[in-house]
Amino acid sequence: MATKEKAAVTTELDQLKDDGHKLVLFNDDFNTFDFVIKTLIEVCDHDAIQAETCAWITHFKGKCVVKKGSLSSLKPCFKEMSNRNLTVEIQ
């Protein structure tokens, strides 16, 4: 019985580790605020206020975590944002 409990804990820990990834947007000198905001709304499902806040944080701090989740949930966002010539990284 103790073995089953230990296996369940391991699975939950693995899921927590998998959900611990971050999609980070980096500042650049060529994309406009409007473009970045529009992209965050379309790709990351941000509302307008959240997208604008992330754009300003990225501008002033050089980077911003724009989404958290599992690696598999962040990869499509990473790919689309990269295709739109935004500098992003999954950490």
What count of helical segments does DSSP give? 4
| Number of discrete domains | 1
Structural class estimated from helices and strands: alpha+beta
Q: CATH homologous superfamily, by name? A: Ribosomal protein L7/L12, C-terminal domain/Adaptor protein ClpS
The largest sheet has its strands arranged as: 2-1-3
Give the radius of gyration.
Answer: 16 Å
Q: What is the CATH first-level class name?
A: Alpha Beta
Q: Assess the beta-strand content as a share of residues.
A: 15-25%
CATH architecture: 2-Layer Sandwich
**Termini, distance in Å?**
37 Å
Order of helices and strands: HEHHEHE
Shape category: globular
Q: Give start-end ranges of low-pLDDT stretches.
A: 5-10
CATH fold field value? Ribosomal Protein L30, Chain: A
- Mean pLDDT rating: 87
**Number of distinct beta strands:** 3
Largest sheet: 3 strands, antiparallel
Give the helix level as a range of percent. Answer: 55-70%
Please give a handful of descriptors for the protein shown.
91 residues, alpha+beta, Ribosomal Protein L30, Chain: A, 3-stranded antiparallel β-sheet
How would you characterize this protein structure?
The chain is an alpha+beta fold and 91 residues long. The chain contains 4 helices and 3 strands; from the N terminus they run H-E-H-H-E-H-E. It has a 3-stranded antiparallel β-sheet. Helix 2 crosses helix 3 (48-61). The termini are far apart.
In a few lines, what is going on in this structure?
With 91 residues, the chain is α+β, with helices and mostly antiparallel strands. It contains 4 helices and 3 strands, in the order αβααβαβ.
